[in-house]
Amino acid sequence: MSMSNTEKTVKDIPRNTPRNTRRKCSTEEKRRIIPEGVRGESSIAELCRRKGINPDMYCRWSKDFLEAEKKRLSGATVRDANTDEVTGLKRKNGDLKQAVAELGLRNDWLKTQSIEHTRSTPYHPQNQGKAERCHRPMKIVVKVEYYYYPWKLEKAIAEWVAHYIHGRYHESLDNVTRANVYEGRRNDILQLAG
Prior knowledge:
Elements: H1 5-16, H2 27-39, H3 44-51, H4 55-74, H5 84-112, H6 125-143, H7 150-167, H8 178-182, H9 186-193
């Protein structure tokens, strides 16, 4: 049995007819279309006909737009990960991670050198002052020269610490050195001087 020309034509019509595919609109187009409908200058159906979009599509866009505005106004904005601001924050975050890693390495190195961080009692500024009075002269002496090698800086600090402990007389200790107090010779020295 052969098919008639009419049956053949009816079956081929859907294949040969160009289909209306859903129109894809960019975000900018949506931003232009939605306010036109909100203003109410023309009906939604007329606007959709003019722009070539489905009214259901417009309603979905409008709902999404209003939800996004509600979130923005409430402060819960979700930003695109490709914006310049987010990229900058990611860069800063990477820099901070790098700094934390370097501080961790520096802290490990200080521990291997048996150097510990000393903390004074909070709300007792006299302790802070003592630490500052100890560090200030060292900074002045060490910063006078530029050290090209770490071992030269370490040597300069070691020399200064030796002078501070063994050679510098402290008025708060009755003009004896810290080493004299630590080794228990303070009273003997004061009796000889007195």
